[in-house]
Amino acid sequence: MLTLLGFCVIDFLWLSLALCFLLAFCVHRLSRYLPTGCEHSKLYILFQDLIRYGKTKGPLKRDHWLRVFDIPKRWFWHFYAISVGWNGVLIVLSLNMIVWGQKFPSWLTDILGFLTTGGPVAVRQVPQVSAVLVQVLLWIHSLRRLLECHLVSVFSDGVIHIVQYIFGLAYYILLGLTVLCLDSLIIEGVGSPAFPLLSQLRWYYVAGAVLFFWASLLQHRSLVLLARLRTGGSGTVETLAHRVPSGGWFELVSCPHYLAELLIYVSLGIVSGSHALTWWLVVLYVLFNQALAAQLCHEFYTSKFQSYPQHRKAFLPYLL
To answer: How far is CA 9 from the centre of its chain?
Structure first.
């Protein structure tokens, strides 16, 4: 049925995730209109506990049993470590196919077949250059974030829910598979024989790569500014208290690092090409996911600091 609608399993997964976070965003925005007392209901607190993490959990009055599922937010680095390792393996497998003509392992082709056609799938002897570029850029992004977690960011005692932690680990595994599915979908749609990688180069690969590195720089600078709120000019941690960020794109939005994350995925969509519906569903998921996280952070800042700049938006300059 999904295939008849132009969707495959991987499309359905990303569309479902995008709609779930869109729903969560809408429910949270509408929760301010709940009757007095509803914010103390167990269902409302559980919902908020599942969508919040780090400093945004602070205002939430949770029962003791909910705190059993807390995991340190600093474990975020596990996500990027998984991504570097897993996507590194997938890149090696792709390069083996390009250089040595070795096919993917049967377990991998079976997974790709299920995600794209619901059955066996043919795999090119030479992968699409767009898929390889997205793989490499995604790996670079994950490596940078892993290094920033250890060398730049200053984590407090903030926590995340164990469900968020498990989801984060699974997310980067699915993301790597999604990139390979882009190649499989191209094969199924075009059906033409493979041709040398260099002959596949397109102008939009350059445009996507430029946006990728610019957005990566924006995210890095934003994370450095956040870290300096706790280290000052000394480079050593002076406080773990939350302060009002300023400078750079923080003058426009409360969370420019979340905006940069969205732009990074948009850049990968440009590299993958306009035919890659699957990746644009990933972008849609990232949009709603990061918009929700940014909205929660924005509300934290505006409620905690009375002098917080009123002109700043949460996520998208001048819009949201």
So the answer is: 20
Where are the strands (E) in the chain, listed by range? Answer: 70-72, 159-161
From the CA atom positions of the chain, what is the Rg in Å? 21
User: 161 - beta bridge partners?
Assistant: 70
Alpha-carbon distance 291 to 288, whole Å?
5
Residue type, 319: L
CB 226 within 8 A of CB 244: no
pTM of the model: 0.89
Who's near 172: CB < 8 A, 6+ residues apart?
79, 80, 82, 83, 86, 87, 142
Rounded CA-CA distance 211/227 in Å is: 24
User: Where would I find the beta strands (DSSP E) of 58-195?
Assistant: 70-72, 159-161
Residues 100, 311: Cα–Cα separation, whole Å: 56
Cβ atoms of 96 and 102 closer than 8 Å: yes
Pairing between β-strand 159-161 and β-strand 70-72 as defined by DSSP bridges:
antiparallel
Tens-digit pLDDT profile for residues 95-146: 888 777 788 888 888 888 888 876 555 555 456 777 889 999 999 999 999 9
Token match 């991987």: residue? 10
Q: Phi, psi at residue 264, to the nearest 5°?
A: -65, -45
Q: Of 136, 118, 139, nearest to 184 (Cα)?
A: 118
Distance in angstroms (rounded) separating the CA atoms of residues 1 and 31: 36
DSSP assignment of 109-173: HHHHHHHHTSS-----SS--HHHHHHHHHHHHHHHHHHHHHHHT----S-EEEHHHHHHHHHHHH
Q: Which two tokens stand for residue 142?
A: 């994950």
Sign of CA dihedral 250, 165, 88, 206: negative
The pair of three-digit structure tokens given for residue 127, joined into one six-digit string: 């992968």
